Amino acid sequence: MAATPSASSPLVLLECLIAGTSHREGLKPYEPNLQIDQALTLSREADSTYDDWAVRVYTADADAMWLGYLPEGRNETIARLLDAGFKLGGRLTHKAWEDDWLYLEMEVLLLGE
Asked: Which of 22, 35, 39, 106 is the most exposed place for a label (fewest CB within 10 A)?
């Protein structure tokens, strides 16, 4: 029998990589600060000229670092939920360097009240 999430556990809506990390200035020296299970925040970029459903991903600390975006083609549902006022967040689940590219994976979470 599968374990049932507790009422306080956030629901995982999406598991994905964070796109565009190679274009984020300052991310390479910031990387040692990134920790697995670290909280992330999401922000809609409704005026993006490249993606109608653009969602930015940031660290959740006081000096938030812009890490990149939810991947195009996997972001529409999350963007619609954010537009509708749902409280969403994220959690860093994996980080690794692949040559000069910082590969980051995350979970998008539906947060409780």
From this structure: 35
pTM for the model: 0.90
CA distance 58 to 89: 10
Domain locations in the chain?
11-59+84-110
What is the dotted CATH code of the domain comprising 11-59+84-110? 3.30.70.2330
Residue 112 clears pLDDT 70, i.e. is over it: yes
* pLDDT exceeds 80 at position 107: yes
Residue 47, number of CB atoms within 10 A of its CB: 7
HEC secondary structure over 1-60: CCCCCCCCCCEEEEEEECECHHHCCCHHHHHHHCCCCCEEEEEECCCCCCCCCCEEEEEC
* CA dihedral (41, 27, 72, 93) positive or negative: negative
- In angstroms, rounded to a whole number, what is the distance separating the alpha carbons of residues 68 and 63? 15
